[in-house]
Amino acid sequence: MKSPFSHMLLASVALCLGGVMPAMAQERVSPRVIIVAGWENGADTGDAPGEYQDWVEREHLTEPVAVRGVKEPILRRNAQGVYGLVLRSGASELMALALDPAFDLKKTYWIFTGISGVNPNVASVGSVAWARWVVDGDALRELDDRSIPADWPYGLYAIGAERPNTLPKDANHYGSVTDVAQLTKAYPLNQGLARWAYDLSKGVKLADDPEIARRRKAWPAGSPASKPPMILMGETLGALRYWHGEARNKWAQDWVKLWTKDQGVFVMTNEESQTNQKEMRLLAQWGYVAPDRIMVLRSGSNPSLPPPGVSLTQSMGDEGPGQIMAFDNNERAGAPVVAELVKHWERYQDHVPSAP
């Protein structure tokens, strides 16, 4: 039984933290679902949305939760065990959360969300994709495309390889491994879980936007980019370089196929998915998280190459109204998965769902 003094002490600590009760002062908690967003505009609620706000408002994540060692507010939750994490300073905050002894994350399901460039050869702006792999587009060799051999499609190729679209023959080109299989730049997700999530969400009605509908008319009739937003399964490519255009889109399609052994399809590109998955793989290796409970859900805010008749420089970074629709549709597609996990937690706590 706590003494009155202990209650006063806890209240004083909470007051010092601006009303946020530190999770360390409570019993160890095990979130059922953590929705991870990469950034937010301004406040978490009530103003122009970023990747986080629709989730905060629609999942009623009203209670801020402190994370040991992190000075800014990054974590919220609701009464059903759903948490929202915004990585204001990047993947380091994943590590901070996992290493906080107040949390037990071994049975937590993760949904990494956010907006991306979308491959117009596969889907349109506003579309949402559940990934089977997250592919790392950072570690490679690069030659200026103006100086490449005449039979090369571009100057990007795997470290240790002799040309684009081939794997290195000698794994020791990296200096620290002995098996080429260890060089993979594709982080496999639980495909059965991804298919299960897709099956739950595929019938969701997505939002559309008049301006985006007008822009779709610039694409050839019948092409994926000309169609209304859709929900699909497809891979996420993460690269710190913000690339754009047909030549680099060809590289992205090829790079995803190379590292997934022709099984993956490039759909979404962004700048942080690869870093987040590296961190999660390390945390799984250390025993803090379950890798088979990780999902990646990305939505397209802009095409990864311009439509016919639009210049590269005009198209580059022109996310416009696509952002708002991508925020909206990301939450719409993910909400049924969160709801199902929470509603039947007694089933999913110990048994990870899967679909053939």
Question: What do these coordinates show?
Answer:
With about 350 residues, the chain is α/β, with parallel strands linked by helices. The chain has one domain: 3-Layer(aba) Sandwich (Rossmann fold), CATH 3.40.50.1580. Helices cover about 30% and strands about 15% of the residues. The protein has ten helices and 14 strands. α3 runs parallel beside α7 and α4 packs across α9. The termini are far apart. The N terminus is likely disordered.
Question: What layout of secondary structure does this protein have?
Answer:
Elements: H1 4-16, E1 33-37, H2 53-58, E2 63-65, E3 75-77, E4 82-86, H3 92-99, E5 109-118, E6 128-130, E7 133-136, E8 141-142, E9 156-157, E10 186-188, H4 191-201, H5 210-216, E11 231-233, E12 235-238, H6 246-259, E13 266-270, H7 273-285, E14 294-303, H8 312-315, H9 322-343, H10 345-348
Parallel strand pairs: 1-4, 1-5, 5-14, 6-11, 7-12, 12-13
Antiparallel strand pairs: 2-3, 3-4, 5-13, 6-14, 7-10, 8-9
Protein name: Purine nucleoside permease
Keywords: Signal
Signal peptide: 1-25
Summarize the structure.
This protein is of the alpha/beta class.
Task: Give short descriptive properties of this protein.
356 residues; alpha/beta; Rossmann fold; twelve-stranded mixed β-sheet; two-stranded antiparallel ribbon; 10 helices
Give the class-level CATH name: Alpha Beta
- Per the CATH scheme, the topology name is Rossmann fold
Radius of gyration: 22 Å
Q: Termini, distance in Å?
A: 50 Å
**What is the number of independent domains?**
1
* Helix residue percentage: 25-40%
CATH architecture classification: 3-Layer(aba) Sandwich
Count of DSSP-assigned helices: 10
CATH superfamily: Nucleoside phosphorylase domain
Average pLDDT: 91
Structural class: alpha/beta
Report the principal-axis shape.
globular
Please give the number of β-strands.
14
Beta-sheet strand percentage? 15-25%
List the uncertain runs.
1-25
Let me know the largest β-sheet.
12 strands, mixed
Secondary-structure element series: HEHEEEHEEEEEEHHEEHEHEHHH
